[in-house]
Amino acid sequence: MIGRLNHVAIAVPDLAAAAAKYRDLLGAHVLHPHDLPEHGVTVVFVQLENTKIELLTPLGPDSPIRKFLDANPSGGIHHICYEVSDLPSAARTLTEAGARILGDGQPRIGAHGLPVLFLHPKDFDGTLIELEEVNPELQPA
Ligand code: CO
């Protein structure tokens, strides 16, 4: 069902400092920050050769990562995202097996403009998993 690792998302208390570390110390290709008000985060994408890192910091009072940062003030890995080719089919398989989808259970449009859903971390060894529907025909080999 799952394909490539699409990204690892890291919640950070200081986005500029985190971006500078990835750019200047780790020598990574770091893109400019952008606000995603509908997701309650500001994000910096770090483009690696084989995947992406997303540095997230809260945007607005109702940010979904606020509580996470309250519990982890120095930041931490927030979720990992796997690609799937058919999100409704993946959702059906998972819910039939008893896995819980966060929210109303329906895919929504994620940070990359593609349908995503999140799986309950208690069902996956304490890891918040995002599934993103990616059309493999549109991907570079
Ligand atoms: Co994500």
Structure write-up:
- The protein has 141 residues and is α+β, with helices and mostly antiparallel strands.
- The protein has one domain (5-138): 2,3-Dihydroxybiphenyl 1,2-Dioxygenase, domain 1 (Roll), CATH 3.10.180.
- It is 19% helix and 33% strand.
- Strands 1, 2, 3, 4, 5, 6, 7, 8 and 9 form a nine-stranded mixed beta sheet that branches.
- A hairpin with a 4-residue loop joins β3 and β4 (41-47).
- The chain is globular, with a radius of gyration of 15 Å.
- The model has no long low-confidence stretch (mean pLDDT 93).
Major β-sheet annotation: 9 strands, mixed
How far do the termini sit from each other? 18 Å
Q: For the residues shown, what is the average pLDDT?
A: 93
Strand content: 25-35%
CATH T-level topology:
2,3-Dihydroxybiphenyl 1,2-Dioxygenase, domain 1
Name the CATH architecture: Roll
What's the SSE blueprint?
Blueprint: E1 5-11, H1 15-25, E2 29-30, E3 34-36, E4 41-47, E5 52-58, H2 66-71, E6 76-84, H3 87-96, E7 108-109, E8 115-119, E9 129-133
Bound molecules: cobalt (II) ion.
Cobalt (II) ion is lined by residues 7, 9, 54, 79, 81, 111, 130.
